[in-house]
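Same chain as my last thread, 726 residues:
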Amino acid sequence: MASEEELFANIDALLEEDPQLPPPAERARLREAAGITQARLAQALKSTVQTVKNYENGRSEPKSPRLEAYQRLLKGWAEKYPAARPDGFPLGQWAADHKRAAQTEAGPQRLAPEHVAALNATEPPGSVADASEPPTETAAPVQAPAAPERPARPAARPATSSRRPAAKKAAARAVDPRFPHGPLAVLDGDGSAYGVDGLVLDCPATTVVELVEWTLRESGLGAAKLHRHGKDGDPLIVLTQSAAAKLGLPERLEDRRGLRLPEDHPVVKQVLKAKWQLTQRGFGPWARIYRKAQGRDRQCVQLAILPWDALDSRSWPGVAEMEPADVARVLGVYAQRVITPRGGTAVNGLELMTALRPPTRPVRDEETGNWVSGLNPGSLGTEPMDPAPPEGQPEHPAIYHSGWKGGFLHEEAYQWVRSVDTLSYEECLLPFAVGLDLNAAFLAAAARLTVGLSEPVHFLNPVFNPKIPGSWLVDLSGIELDPRLPSPFTPDGTRPTGPAWYQTHTVAYAQELGHNVAPIEAYLRKETGAYLDPWHDRLKTAYVDTLADLGVTKDLTDTEFLAAMERHKDVDPAMAAVLAAVKGTVKGGIGKLFENPQGKNYKEGEPWPAMMRPTWRPDIRAAVISKARVNMHRKLLNMSRMTGLFPLAVLSDCVVYPSPGVSPLDFLPYAASGKPQPGGFRLGRTPGLAKLEGVQEMSWAVDLMEKGLNPARHIKGGDAVLDDGE
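reply #2:
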């Protein structure tokens, strides 16, 4: 930090002359009266423009020696530019009153009521006094601060309401009185804890234990539960590199495989000595520190350590390199729209399912009349469930020890490349290959999806019922389909060669195509429900709201939509990072429903941690992927019937078509009225609709296809990797 002498020299360049700080709104008035910009003031104070804004809207206060320098400047401006109040109380008098107060042993003096009224009477538009913007918390009485030689930092500096006009009404967050400062804060090395909506708190902690206790007792951080039978969200503290170093944490984790501090590390010893506990994940990039709950009050703090790659660039692009206030903005929006982060986006996706469908609820014991914990209908309960033999994998203990040899379900996303032998002369003459990407295809598939909630039951020669979720052994190899389209029954698009296990949606699609299906056997679940519905609804809203923040709104024409999508990532990097995190939450959450054993020391037949969760449900993952793949094939088939066009390749939710032009508008089907034809691919921002993924020359795509490579994997950038590892 710059020395006091250097700061004073910079301030003297703007002015000369040591009062107390006036109210935030008056600080802004004085600066504007002097004709000084926030950027110039920030430069003089060796600070940032955002920090100056915080000073002027009351969200933070300067610390020594910056405090004394700012006092010096404001006093000089107050003498130069006094403003009379309606009652004749001049602003310049503020400095004199505080100077007198500082020279007495009494210290700070409360303003007279008439002065408080005079101050409130001159609040600018958008302030606490402006009824058009409700205050986020009760305003504290105005009090003249003291002038110690070096002010002591308070334990927590609550933010006052913003004096800035609200950018949008939609941006205002509902404040839970138990958690007035939002769900999280980003702690920097100087003790500043940056929260949501520009809030800055002072955190005096110098150890991890002190940080945990400050967070739970004084910070006002946390989040209300997402379901009435759920649990409140634990506060999250994100540590920058300087904050982590201040708390005694190493710059990087030496254990790159285990991703945790060793048990004999001083910080771990310190935490355990203070009677706090760590979860089985230990002290890693996402460390949970807790004590047993006292009644309804949880005692748990989540830490995210930035220098240990807590926010990896795949899920949170560019966030780890942002300033602390911007990191807080990204995570705060994500927490408001999705969930307070508790780990990587995949972990958050799984946690969100449980938060929206809690496993238990209070029920009355008929015998005693007491309220006890009981199963919450529609949830997955509290205990893990063994999969049906074809739904698991050979390593699973229940399957390994049963000696099962009957085959396994193989419902995966498409990875298909069309044979070049099926390309027509006319297709090869088309100049371009255009890639379409379906927005959040797995999320769209989760909508109104019925899944099993009870144990699987075995049936022989059952009559197929498309409304019952489960796994069916059936022979679909006799179904003839156009070779220019992938088979809807296999991930690689090849025709089945005999009986195989399929999820309900795959078999139902064969029936939809007009074929009789005769299952040989099945594992079905009698209790069913739309378990993922609230998860889908919350993530869909988060997805479209974040796109709207990036300029992709629902009222755009298809041409305007394509233009908006081309530039949306450059509109606001913070919101673009939120969008990437929402998409990662969808894919990762579905993926974690079937998490494999990990570690080189794992032995087949032994249990692994993931399978001990109630949310380890490979059958639910199979249902989502089966429905997504069927949805894709249905669109491919309809496109061929409406336009005569056939795809070149499909990779999960991306499809590549030959095109006469560089835009999807050159080949997508539209009615005479100009509206998109139903049933095919349609452009739009909601999950399941399409956007442009990329454009390349047709010769480029054919060259990859001849080499057995998938153009859909590289259509976005044309960076095809042609080595042996592809």
